[in-house]
């Protein structure tokens, strides 16, 4: 089987795991992370096949974690991905490299990304939480579980505690440059949001 068919097989299998998830973590998130990681790969020479496969598979454990918080979606997804990649005909080397990208992509906890692909991949996943897309995702996720816009345990608190800190967790030079630019957008959005909230605009 040529490699394009093998990639297609993985993509189709992965897609089924994202059904029913809100837009913050649906399969479109994977497609955006793929595009961003391929863009970052241009500036550092990371392997694009590893990044594409990781993008499709990295959050396949997400719905399991939503149902049972003791499941780590990165750890579970890394193991399940090995099975999917082997069944799709990928070599042991590819399986291990993708699995490392997935196990190390999680924002909180888990192993640190060691390979250049894992570093690029972590940056691309975090970049999807910034900028206009990042703002959309925070409110989509909040809306799916009844989170208030402002106040304790709110979407605005999430911006302050997590989203604005993401730029400090970038591993690549290009990733940092993009994160800084997208963070400025989020800060401008929050400033405007708070002014409207207080009736100042
Ligand atoms: Fe994830
Ligand atoms: Fe993700």
Structural notes for this entry:
- There is one protein chain.
- By secondary structure, this protein is mainly alpha-helical.
- The chain has one domain: Hypothetical protein af1432.
- The chain is 66% helix and 0% strand.
- Helix 5 packs antiparallel against helix 6 (92-103).
- One fe (ii) ion is lined by residues 58-59, 73-74, 105-106.
CATH superfamily: Hypothetical protein af1432
Low-confidence stretches: none
Q: Kindly estimate the percentage of residues that lie in beta strands according to DSSP.
A: under 5%
Assign the CATH architecture.
Answer: Orthogonal Bundle
Structurally, the number of domains stands at 1
Mean pLDDT over the full residue set = 97
Rounded to the nearest angstrom, the distance between the terminal CA atoms is: 60 Å
**Anisotropy-based shape:** globular
Q: Which characteristics define this entry?
A:
globular; Hypothetical protein af1432; 201 residues; mainly alpha; binds fe (ii) ion; 10 helices
């Amino acid at each position: 089987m040529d490699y394009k068919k093998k990639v297609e097989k993985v993509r189709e299998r992965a897609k089924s795991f994202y059904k029913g998830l809100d837009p913050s973590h649906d399969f479109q998130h994977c497609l955006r992370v793929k595009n961003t990681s391929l863009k970052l790969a241009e500036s550092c020479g990371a392997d694009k096949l590893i990044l594409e496969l990781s993008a499709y598979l990295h959050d396949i454990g997400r719905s399991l974690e939503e149902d049972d918080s003791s499941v780590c979606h990165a750890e579970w997804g890394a193991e399940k991905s090995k099975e999917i990649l082997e069944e799709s005909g990928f070599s042991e080397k590819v399986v291990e490299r993708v699995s490392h990208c997935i196990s190390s992509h999680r924002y909180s906890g888990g192993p640190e990304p060691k390979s250049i692909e894992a570093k690029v991949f972590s940056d691309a996943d975090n970049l999807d939480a910034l900028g206009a897309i990042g703002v959309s995702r925070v409110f989509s996720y909040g809306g799916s579980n009844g989170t208030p816009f402002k106040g304790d345990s709110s979407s605005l608190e999430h911006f302050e505690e997590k989203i604005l800190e993401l730029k400090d967790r970038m591993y690549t030079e290009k990733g940092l440059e993009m994160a800084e630019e997208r963070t400025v957008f989020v800060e401008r959005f929050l400033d405007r949001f708070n002014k409207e909230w207080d009736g100042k605009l």
